[in-house]
Amino acid sequence: MKNEATGLSRLISAFGFSMNGLKRTYATEAAFRQEVWLAIVLLPLAFVVGGSAFETAILIASVLLLLIVELLNSAIENVVDRIGSEYHELSGAAKDTGSAAVLITMGFVVVVWLGVLFTD
Hints:
The chain is an all-alpha fold. Helix content is 85%, strand content 0%.
């Protein structure tokens, strides 16, 4: 479905599509729901534990990056599932690669938070 709107109407439509994506992913993906709840805890905590504006920003950025990567992983999974339910090596590879991206991002979050909490 192509968005034919222009200008402000296009931005409003795009915002609506983005909100639909967030709602759908939250409703259908348990991992995303868990990460959203983690973000609800960690984002305010970043303002408490961040010793400087940079530390606070990197703590927040790491959590938001995890949500972004999970959304992209969910998008990959949805496209692969749309193509067909039969097993194909490339479909499995695409899903595994998306999952690996989430895993690496989780590791990044842990390293950043531990680095901020236990340095100085």
